[in-house]
Amino acid sequence: MGKTDTYRDPNVITVNDVQVLSISKEWKLVEARDRSEQFIILVIEGRASFRLDQTGGMLNQGDFMVISPEDMQEGLALLPITENIYVCYVALFAAHARKERDGWLINEVMLPIQGKHHIETISLIHHHIEQLHLAWRKDHFDQPTMQILFLKLWQAIMAGVTLQEKKTDRQQLLQGIAEHMEQHCEETFQIEEMARYSGMTPTLFYQQFKEYTSLTPLQFINRKRMEKACQLLVAEDVMIPEVANEVGYRDVYYFSRMFKKIVGVPPYRFKKSLQKKIAVLHPAIIGDLLALGVSIQQLIPVWEKHRQKRPYSQMEAATLEFDLYRLHQMEPDLIVGTDQVAPWFEQLEAIAPTLLIPFKTTTWRDHLQQVAAMLGIAEVATSWLYYYDQKAVAARERIRKKIGNETVMAVRAWDGGARIFGARRRKISDILYGDLQVRPPVGTDHFAFLDIVSLDELHDFQADHILLFDERKIRTDVRKHRLKGNVHRAGVYPWLHYSALGHEQAISEALTHLAESQECTKKESGSSIFLRPQVCDNN
Asked: 193 FRET partner, CA 20 to 30 A, in 66, 168, 432, 498?
């Protein structure tokens, strides 16, 4: 018999143990009895947190784990979150055998999938488990029968995994189609052609595309065209007919009607209103201005150095202190700040028309609408919020399908402690518990934030998912705390950036973490109709 580390489907199985357990308290599986023994743990009912060596997470109904001997150095522990959980446990040896000229060649193999997976066909899987368990209890020495029954179970598991992979493949395909449409928005697209490329019927493609983007294919392409038109109108000295032609419209009057319908104002008014130099006295307001379509080149950031935060700390003028004399020399057309500089309002007003927003007593939606009104484009804010709400509803449904009623908690970590954001913290609750309507863990609904001295204290809240905003320098230390639940690592921006742009990009990141994948990506978040910097920090 040979040894190999190849991951492939086995055709020879020796079953060492089969258990179907009802667990109401912590349950542990010790290290492998043999260096080639493998394990399958499948949750039939209920929900539990798990700890496996240096990793941890959540297991829900339909989740299963394939565990190799190398992953069992410290064993596996399950802790029920529901009153009890119903679990199947199988220990086995696996090999692949083939006939050679001089005899049989048998190589021990690792099962072709490892780690945590999910399957929807739990009733079929349950049936095969019952058959395997019944045979084990009757005569576990009858290995030929055990092998046949296990291979039936394994085929059902692999079929369920393949079904889930197809769903993921479809999502990736839709993402690729949407990205292609965005990059070539000036071209003409036919739904039938895109559906044929995706392998779906036109009706199914239409439904799936709208679920993924919150827009129909036609709405999506028109909106991307207007996004590009907005950039051209404010960033370049071009005439409106040129812009219309550049984004795929041969009829300039039709372009103007579509622009007003989607953006909120006619293109000539948009261009005139946004070609102004604007001095910004608070970082968050830049997110509102960019959402409205103001070019970043038109902005003059003026704030103290200690307020410099990503993504605006690298802007050319971001080193300026709040200096009225120097501000006067820059000759801005408008000044926008918060009520923190209210004592200097008259001096600011003497330099240029000034808007000071009551930042802490009003919402980010109010901020956006006030800034838009000052620019004379209040309709643009109304349109932007309409599409934002559409995106939030679509994201809410996708997240609900993925995690159901599981709880989500936001935490910012640093060396020596962390801050838990409760349901009363507006920067987080507006997004997570308002727009996305996910459930906060029990005990976090009555405070804005709670500072803790160790990440170990997070265990007390038993959150199913933890959005962990941690700095790069402490990332290697997070694992040692063995946090329960699914930990999604993210950057502070955009989650704690209280602006329209910050909220819109946080919606996109929430989809990445809670609806699409358990891993962070480098992909830039957000799908705003307007120009924005490449600032997503998923690390």
From this structure: 168
d(CA 442, CA 103) in angstroms, rounded, equals: 63
Give the β-pairing of 103-110 and 85-100: antiparallel
Q: What are phi and psi of 425, to 5 degrees?
A: -90, 110
Q: How many CB atoms lie within 10 A of CB 124?
A: 15
Cα–Cα distance, 460 to 480 (Å, whole number): 17
- The HSE-up count of residue 369 (CA atoms within 13 Å, CB side) is 10
In angstroms, the CA 122 to CA 88 distance is 12
302-352 pLDDT per residue, tens: 875 545 455 544 444 444 456 788 888 889 999 999 998 898 999 999 999
DSSP symbols for 33-94: SSTT-EEEEEEEES-EEEEETTEEEEE-TTEEEEE-GGGGSS-EEEEESSS-EEEEEEEEEE
Q: Name the token pair of 143.
A: 């290995």
Give Cα 314 distance to the centre of its chain.
Answer: 26
Instruction: Please tell me the number of Cα atoms within 13 Å of 216 on its side-chain side.
Output: 6
Tens digit of each residue's pLDDT (9 = 90 or more) over 497-508: 899 999 999 999
- Whether 531 contacts 274, CB under 8 Å: no
What are the pLDDT digits (tens) for 147-191? 888 888 888 888 777 655 555 567 777 888 888 888 888 888 888
Q: Tell me what the mean pLDDT of segment 207-231 comes to.
A: 90
Report the distance separating Cα 459 and Cα 481, nearest Å. Answer: 10
Which structure tokens are listed for 180?
């292609």
Question: Are the beta carbons of 202 and 191 closer than 8 angstroms?
Answer: yes
Among residues 356, 225, 235, 222, the alpha carbon closest in space to that of 294 is found at 235
Q: Is 361 helix (H, G, I), strand (E, B) or coil?
A: coil
User: Dmax of the chain from CA atoms?
Assistant: 97
Alpha carbon distance 480, 478 (integer Å): 6
Per-residue model confidence (pLDDT) at position 123: 72
Question: What does the alpha-carbon distance between residue 384 and residue 529 come to, in Å, rounded to a whole number?
Answer: 8
Q: What is the pLDDT of residues 230-251, one digit of tens each?
A: 999 987 678 999 999 999 999 9
**Residue that has been written with the tokens 């446990």 in this structure:** 89
The answer to whether 68 touches 115, Cβ cutoff 8 Å, is: no
CB distance 398 to 515 below 8 Å: yes
- Of 144, 15, 181, 7, the closest CA to residue 90 belongs to 15
Residue 365 has what pLDDT?
95
Residue 41 has pLDDT above 50, yes or no: yes
The b-or-e profile of 158-196 (16+ CB within 10 A means b, else e) is bebbeeeeeeeebbebbeebbeebbeebeeebeeeebbe
Higher pLDDT pick, 123 / 288: 288
Two tokens, residue 345: 């309002």
Q: Write down the residue that tokens 């392998």 correspond to.
A: 199
Calculate mean pLDDT across residues 353-373: 94
Between CA 365 and CA 430 the distance in angstroms is 11
Structure tokens at 22: 């009802």
